[in-house]
Amino acid sequence: MLPSGEKLTQRPQSTGTTKRCRVHVDGRSVLSVSVERWEGDTTAEQVAQSALSVAPSDTKTRDGLYIYSSTGAVGRVDCPAAEARQESTWASVRVSRTDADADDMLKLVKEYAKAVGESSDCAR
Q: Taking the model in full, what pTM does it have?
């Protein structure tokens, strides 16, 4: 998924209810991942509306928890700690490659959402 290069760097950022990390290869941004807290009844379409590289009209999984394209995806995180606060947690991924595959983006956001759900931020 990442292009080849000589130097890989990451740039984490946190603002308000969003945690983001951008990955650069040789100084060029190639991957961005984020975790955001939303109101409890937020839908994937609402999250996709504000996400880059994915739109509410892109492919949606049957369960409605993920929306994805060849360059971006959003997905609901199973996060009991947030749900206890009447919030929902959403993961998003975005790549700069134009030759990326939509199915790969779905796999990536599912794995990322799973990892976030298993993190200390979402302790059960």
A: 0.90
Amino acid at 76: R
pLDDT by residue (tens digit) across 60-93? 999 999 999 999 999 999 998 888 889 999 999 9
Distances (CA, A) of 58 to 6, 10, 14, 24, 71: 34, 28, 27, 26, 11
Here the tokens at position 16 are 């308000």
Reading across the β-sheet that carries 72-77, which strands appear in turn?
A: 8-15, 18-25, 28-39, 87-95, 72-77, 66-68, 59-60
97 pLDDT above the threshold of 80: no
CB 32: neighbour CB atoms within 10 A?
Answer: 20
Q: Which of 49, 36, 30 is nearest to 92 (CA)?
A: 36
Q: What are phi and psi of 47, to 5 degrees?
A: -65, -45
Q: How far apart are the C-alpha atoms of 105 and 73, rounded to whole Å?
A: 6
Place of tokens 């892109």: 58
